């Protein structure tokens, strides 16, 4: 979601969503991996069950994965105040297509309209990246918070992503285990957090440490990930430089089930 103009980039980089302008390529989401994680989600514990362990999903994952803070004021998605950004649409339906069309408008790409451009850019980020939905029209988003770009840092965006993703996992996990509406089952919100989860990766490292070759192996492989052509673990936030996942469902499932496959799980993550 890069931008062409330096003045637009400079303005956006003073907001909590500054990392998006540094994205240079699309991120592929691994549906088989998400399905496996949904099947292992425990709503009561807000954690993933992996063998005899519980691996929690926490604000650390959101912070390290997306670069969002996890403190600040609550973000409300139920406020009917549409704010300044709604005025740009003159009563028409707000959709992904109409937002993109406005962003490409020459009028909004001038310096004097940089604030409106940034409001639209962040709204698009809400809709397709941080809080994606399946509805066509864009509604029940915190439009009003975009009125003051300078105050966006006051809000708990990371905590909001975590809360909404956890709720989505709760719903999907219930449907999965009760065999309800499996054809129409979908995860909303920022599932990318699951794919770049810090704690899941650390947990895999821990299992390698305890069940395979001990401390020397663990330290050696951690060094390799950090330094030998696998530097994505040290990127911040992680989504900026994250590789594609190419595992099939059967390989992911077996990897979570058997200790002897944990070594291959780690390196399959980084194809």
Relevant terms:
4% strand, mainly alpha, 3-stranded antiparallel sheet, disordered C terminus, 271 residues, 11 helices, 3 strands
How would you explain this protein's 3D organization?
The chain is mainly alpha-helical. Helix content is 46%, strand content 4%. The chain is built from eleven helices and three strands; from the N terminus they run H-H-E-E-E-H-H-H-H-H-H-H-H-H. Strands 1-2-3 form a three-stranded antiparallel beta sheet. Helix 3 packs across helix 7 and helix 5 packs antiparallel against helix 6. The longest helix has 30 residues. It is globular and about 60 Å long.
Task: Write the SSE topology.
Layout: H1 6-12, H2 31-39, E1 41-42, E2 47-50, E3 53-56, H3 59-66, H4 83-87, H5 96-103, H6 114-130, H7 157-177, H8 192-195, H9 198-227, H10 249-257, H11 262-269
Antiparallel strand pairs: 1-2, 2-3
How large is the share of residues in beta strands?
Answer: under 5%
Q: Going across the major beta sheet, what is the strand order?
A: 1-2-3
Alpha carbon gyration radius: 20 Å
Give the count of helical stretches: 11
The biggest sheet, with number of strands, parallel, antiparallel or mixed sense and barrel status, is: 3 strands, antiparallel
The helix-and-strand class reads mainly alpha
- Oligomeric category: single chain
SSE string, helices as H and strands as E: HHEEEHHHHHHHHH
Termini separation: 23 Å
- What are the low-pLDDT stretches, counting only 5+ consecutive residues below 50? 212-233, 259-264, 266-271
Number of strands: 3
Average pLDDT, all residues: 78
Q: What spatial form do the alpha-carbon principal axes imply? A: globular
Q: How much helical structure, as a percent, in the residues? A: 40-55%
């Amino acid at each position: 979601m890069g931008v062409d103009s330096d003045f637009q980039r400079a303005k956006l980089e003073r907001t909590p969503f500054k990392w998006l302008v540094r994205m240079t390529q699309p991120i592929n989401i691994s549906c088989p991996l998400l399905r496996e994680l949904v099947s292992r989600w425990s709503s009561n514990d807000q954690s993933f069950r992996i063998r005899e362990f519980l691996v929690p999903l926490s604000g650390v994952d959101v912070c390290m994965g997306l670069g969002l803070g996890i403190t600040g004021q609550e973000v409300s998605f139920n406020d009917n105040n549409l704010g300044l950004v709604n005025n740009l649409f003159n009563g028409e339906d707000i959709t992904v297509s109409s937002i993109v069309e406005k962003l490409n408008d020459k009028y909004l790409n001038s310096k004097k309209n940089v604030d409106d451009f940034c409001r639209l850019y962040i709204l698009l980020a809400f809709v397709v990246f941080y809080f994606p939905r399946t509805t066509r029209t864009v509604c029940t988003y915190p439009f009003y918070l975009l009125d003051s770009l300078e105050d966006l840092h006051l809000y708990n965006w990371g905590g909001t992503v975590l809360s909404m993703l956890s709720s989505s996992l709760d719903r999907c996990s219930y449907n999965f285990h009760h065999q309800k509406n499996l054809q129409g089952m979908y995860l909303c919100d920022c599932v990318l957090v699951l794919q770049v989860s810090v704690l899941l990766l650390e947990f895999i490292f821990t299992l390698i440490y305890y069940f395979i070759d001990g401390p020397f192996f663990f330290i050696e492989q951690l060094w390799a990930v950090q330094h030998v052509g696998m530097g994505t673990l040290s990127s911040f936030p992680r989504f900026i430089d994250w590789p594609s996942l190419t595992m099939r469902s059967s390989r992911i499932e077996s990897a979570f089930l058997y200790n002897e496959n944990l070594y291959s799980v780690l390196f399959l993550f980084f194809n």
